[in-house]
Structure prediction request, 142 residues.
Amino acid sequence: MKTWQAWYLHFANCAVGLTGLVYAYFLYFVPPIDEFSNVASQWQPLWHELHILFAPALIFGIGMIWLVHAWTKFKNKNSARRRTGIFLLLSAWPMIMSGVIIQVVTEPAASGFWKSVHLWTSIFWLIGYGLHLVSRKTALSP
Prediction:
Protein backbone atom coordinates (compact mmCIF):
# COMPACT_ATOMS: atom_id res chain seq x y z
CA MET A 1 0.00 0.00 0.00
CA LYS A 2 1.32 3.42 -0.93
CA THR A 3 1.59 6.18 1.64
CA TRP A 4 -0.87 8.44 -0.18
CA GLN A 5 -3.47 5.67 -0.15
CA ALA A 6 -3.17 5.26 3.61
CA TRP A 7 -3.37 9.03 4.14
CA TYR A 8 -6.39 9.26 1.83
CA LEU A 9 -8.19 6.63 3.90
CA HIS A 10 -7.17 8.29 7.18
CA PHE A 11 -8.46 11.67 5.98
CA ALA A 12 -11.74 10.26 4.64
CA ASN A 13 -12.27 8.24 7.81
CA CYS A 14 -11.60 11.26 10.03
CA ALA A 15 -13.88 13.50 7.93
CA VAL A 16 -16.78 11.05 7.93
CA GLY A 17 -16.23 9.99 11.53
CA LEU A 18 -16.03 13.54 12.88
CA THR A 19 -19.04 14.82 10.93
CA GLY A 20 -21.03 11.72 11.89
CA LEU A 21 -20.21 12.03 15.58
CA VAL A 22 -21.08 15.74 15.67
CA TYR A 23 -24.33 15.10 13.78
CA ALA A 24 -25.20 12.22 16.14
CA TYR A 25 -24.53 14.50 19.11
CA PHE A 26 -27.05 17.03 17.81
CA LEU A 27 -29.52 14.32 16.85
CA TYR A 28 -29.48 12.31 20.09
CA PHE A 29 -28.23 14.58 22.89
CA VAL A 30 -29.38 18.13 22.14
CA PRO A 31 -33.07 18.97 22.52
CA PRO A 32 -34.85 20.56 19.53
CA ILE A 33 -34.81 24.34 19.16
CA ASP A 34 -38.53 24.48 19.87
CA GLU A 35 -41.43 22.10 20.30
CA PHE A 36 -42.31 22.18 16.59
CA SER A 37 -38.81 21.48 15.29
CA ASN A 38 -36.82 18.31 14.75
CA VAL A 39 -33.57 20.30 14.51
CA ALA A 40 -31.47 20.80 17.63
CA SER A 41 -29.27 23.58 16.29
CA GLN A 42 -28.91 25.76 13.22
CA TRP A 43 -25.63 23.86 12.64
CA GLN A 44 -27.18 20.37 12.65
CA PRO A 45 -28.18 20.33 8.94
CA LEU A 46 -24.66 21.44 7.93
CA TRP A 47 -23.03 18.56 9.80
CA HIS A 48 -25.51 16.13 8.26
CA GLU A 49 -24.79 17.44 4.75
CA LEU A 50 -21.02 17.31 5.31
CA HIS A 51 -21.34 13.74 6.55
CA ILE A 52 -23.23 12.73 3.43
CA LEU A 53 -20.76 14.57 1.18
CA PHE A 54 -17.67 12.95 2.73
CA ALA A 55 -19.16 9.43 2.89
CA PRO A 56 -18.47 8.54 -0.79
CA ALA A 57 -14.80 9.42 -0.24
CA LEU A 58 -14.65 6.87 2.59
CA ILE A 59 -16.46 4.24 0.53
CA PHE A 60 -14.00 4.80 -2.32
CA GLY A 61 -11.09 4.60 0.14
CA ILE A 62 -12.37 1.33 1.61
CA GLY A 63 -12.62 -0.12 -1.90
CA MET A 64 -9.15 1.10 -2.80
CA ILE A 65 -7.58 -0.32 0.35
CA TRP A 66 -9.46 -3.58 -0.16
CA LEU A 67 -7.78 -4.00 -3.55
CA VAL A 68 -4.23 -3.02 -2.61
CA HIS A 69 -4.02 -4.10 1.02
CA ALA A 70 -6.85 -5.98 2.69
CA TRP A 71 -7.39 -8.82 0.24
CA THR A 72 -3.68 -9.75 0.14
CA LYS A 73 -3.49 -9.66 3.95
CA PHE A 74 -6.75 -11.60 4.25
CA LYS A 75 -5.34 -14.43 2.11
CA ASN A 76 -2.28 -14.59 4.39
CA LYS A 77 -3.57 -16.54 7.38
CA ASN A 78 -0.60 -15.44 9.54
CA SER A 79 -1.11 -11.68 9.14
CA ALA A 80 -0.47 -9.81 12.38
CA ARG A 81 -3.60 -7.64 12.22
CA ARG A 82 -5.93 -10.13 10.59
CA ARG A 83 -8.53 -10.06 13.39
CA THR A 84 -8.96 -6.29 13.39
CA GLY A 85 -9.02 -6.30 9.59
CA ILE A 86 -11.83 -8.87 9.54
CA PHE A 87 -13.66 -6.83 12.18
CA LEU A 88 -13.37 -3.77 9.90
CA LEU A 89 -14.68 -5.71 6.93
CA LEU A 90 -17.64 -7.07 8.90
CA SER A 91 -18.59 -3.61 10.20
CA ALA A 92 -18.01 -1.79 6.87
CA TRP A 93 -20.74 -3.52 4.89
CA PRO A 94 -23.65 -2.89 7.26
CA MET A 95 -22.35 0.64 7.95
CA ILE A 96 -22.31 1.50 4.24
CA MET A 97 -25.58 -0.22 3.35
CA SER A 98 -27.50 1.20 6.31
CA GLY A 99 -26.21 4.68 5.42
CA VAL A 100 -27.68 4.28 1.95
CA ILE A 101 -30.93 2.76 3.19
CA ILE A 102 -31.46 5.65 5.64
CA GLN A 103 -31.63 8.01 2.66
CA VAL A 104 -34.53 6.17 1.00
CA VAL A 105 -36.63 4.68 3.82
CA THR A 106 -39.79 6.62 4.64
CA GLU A 107 -41.53 4.40 7.21
CA PRO A 108 -40.72 5.79 10.70
CA ALA A 109 -40.15 2.37 12.31
CA ALA A 110 -37.87 1.23 9.49
CA SER A 111 -36.05 4.55 9.53
CA GLY A 112 -35.40 4.23 13.26
CA PHE A 113 -34.16 0.69 12.85
CA TRP A 114 -31.72 1.57 10.06
CA LYS A 115 -30.49 4.67 11.90
CA SER A 116 -29.72 2.45 14.87
CA VAL A 117 -27.91 -0.09 12.67
CA HIS A 118 -25.92 2.72 11.06
CA LEU A 119 -25.02 4.32 14.38
CA TRP A 120 -23.80 1.10 16.01
CA THR A 121 -21.94 -0.28 13.00
CA SER A 122 -20.29 3.13 12.56
CA ILE A 123 -19.18 3.11 16.19
CA PHE A 124 -17.82 -0.42 15.71
CA TRP A 125 -16.04 0.74 12.53
CA LEU A 126 -14.37 3.67 14.31
CA ILE A 127 -13.30 1.49 17.24
CA GLY A 128 -12.02 -1.20 14.87
CA TYR A 129 -10.16 1.37 12.78
CA GLY A 130 -8.47 2.73 15.89
CA LEU A 131 -7.57 -0.77 17.10
CA HIS A 132 -6.22 -1.64 13.66
CA LEU A 133 -3.95 1.42 13.72
CA VAL A 134 -2.83 0.80 17.31
CA SER A 135 -2.13 -2.86 16.61
CA ARG A 136 0.09 -1.73 13.73
CA LYS A 137 2.23 0.22 16.16
CA THR A 138 2.52 -2.74 18.52
CA ALA A 139 3.25 -5.12 15.63
CA LEU A 140 6.14 -2.87 14.53
CA SER A 141 7.60 -2.59 18.03
CA PRO A 142 10.48 -4.97 18.92
